[in-house]
Amino acid sequence: MASPIDWLPTLLAKGPQALQRQHLRYQSQPAARPRLHLIVLDTSGSMRQGGRLALAKGYAARLIEQAARAGDDVGLLSFGGRGLEWLVPPGPARSAGAARVRQCGGGGGTPLAQALALAQQRIAQPSRRAASPPLLWLLTDGRTLEQPAAPTTASVVVDFEDPRRPLGRCAAWAARWGAEYRLASALKL
């Protein structure tokens, strides 16, 4: 690792004197480049049961707030009976984006494959700001018969399924995709 001390300006500031703390000059560090967190939120009818949608929306809001604090980018795509909707278009994360997720409703079917295809299209677009590959967050209860293809980027599947009637689809997708798997019932928000 390179030294953060910029030696030439330090030695010029020191002159013929013994080196003192006030002589030290430091190299400017390049600003960290943001990462895109692309959140894909299931707002289908099954998510409305048992408070799962409210829990998932709270989790998404927390992800947005964390991304805003870190200076990262975020995008939030909801999918459900009303189709696909960018609740928060991909761009610099703002804490105000968390309010958008709290306002969304739910109901209807689960166009998961369509949502992941749209997310993949966005991921494929180059970003001038992004330093590392995007991170795709899928927040769902897995209540669909669709078997979506694996995302091309690092992924986290957050499972909001009903623990009384587990299907295990989210865990199976995560295993098949090589994604991180998180069980919502074990999360601390």
What's this entry about, in short?
The protein starts with 6 loop residues before the first helix and ends in a 6-residue tail after the last strand. The protein is built from six helices and six strands, in the order αβααββααββαβ.
Give the arrangement of secondary structure elements.
Layout: H1 7-14, E1 36-42, H2 45-48, H3 52-70, E2 73-80, E3 83-92, H4 97-103, H5 112-124, E4 135-140, E5 154-159, H6 169-177, E6 180-183
Parallel strand pairs: 1-2, 1-4, 4-5, 5-6
Antiparallel strand pairs: 2-3
Helix pairs in contact: 3-4
- Order of strands in the sheet with most strands: 3-2-1-4-5-6
- Low-confidence runs: none
Largest sheet: 6 strands, mixed
Q: What is the 3D form?
A: elongated
What is the helical fraction, as a range of percent? 25-40%
User: β content, as a range?
Assistant: 15-25%
Notes on the structure:
This protein has a six-stranded mixed β-sheet, with helices on both faces. The chain folds into two domains: 1-29, no CATH class; 36-186, von Willebrand factor, type A domain (Rossmann fold, 3-Layer(aba) Sandwich), CATH 3.40.50.410. With 189 residues, it is α/β, with parallel strands linked by helices. The protein is elongated. Helix 3 runs antiparallel to helix 4. Strand 2 (73-80) and strand 3 (83-92) form a beta hairpin. The chain has helices at residues 7-14, 45-48, 52-70, 97-103, 112-124, 169-177; strands at residues 36-42, 73-80, 83-92, 135-140, 154-159, 180-183. The longest helix is centred in the N-terminal third of the chain and has 19 residues, at 52-70. It starts with 6 loop residues before the first helix and ends in a 6-residue tail after the last strand.
